[in-house]
């Protein structure tokens, strides 16, 4: 995961643990490794740490697609094949996730809608500060299919 101090990181971790619990999956603490967002080198180091475990994970979910590229490199250096030996997922849906081989399974946010809603809420707050409250709005994204995950 990304930096511990990030609110985004905490929300992603809670969502991850909830989804795992809902499916009866227990994740060992050693499988949750901090790294840095958008840093392929630190994610390569984190990937090597996971690969050194006595029982390595069967799938690694990276904090973002750019970081997943570092994971791809570390897995290749270890002689492992994606997805035959280990599955890989990312988050963002950047262009590079579509052109690596195999293409990365990733969650793509709807950044256009996010930006539009954020601008609308900011304008509302500026124009009507006494009657505007902060609110949480969910904007759906989509899972981009790729060849980096092996379905059993």
Q: Can you describe what's shown?
A:
Strands 1-2-3-4 form a 4-stranded mixed β-sheet, covered by helices on one side. It has helices at residues 7-22, 40-51, 65-77, 95-99, 111-127; strands at residues 59-61, 87-91, 105-108, 142-144. It has 5 helices and 4 strands. It is α/β, with parallel strands linked by helices and 152 residues long. Helices cover 41% and strands 10% of the residues. Helix 2 crosses helix 3 (65-77).
How is this fold's topology laid out?
Blueprint: H1 7-22, H2 40-51, E1 59-61, H3 65-77, E2 87-91, H4 95-99, E3 105-108, H5 111-127, E4 142-144
Parallel strand pairs: 1-2, 2-3
Antiparallel strand pairs: 3-4
Structure, briefly:
The protein is α/β, with parallel strands linked by helices. The protein has helices spanning 7-22, 40-51, 65-77, 95-99, 111-127; strands at 59-61, 87-91, 105-108, 142-144.
Q: Radius of gyration, Cα only, in angstroms?
A: 18 Å
The neighbouring-strand order within the major sheet is: 1-2-3-4
Mean pLDDT: 92
User: Helix and strand string, N-terminal first?
Assistant: HHEHEHEHE
Number of strands: 4
Biggest beta sheet attributes: 4 strands, mixed
Beta-strand percentage range: 5-15%
Helices, by number, come to: 5
Terminal CA distance reads 25 Å
The helix/strand class is alpha/beta
Low-confidence stretches: none
Shape estimate: elongated
Estimate percent helicity: 40-55%
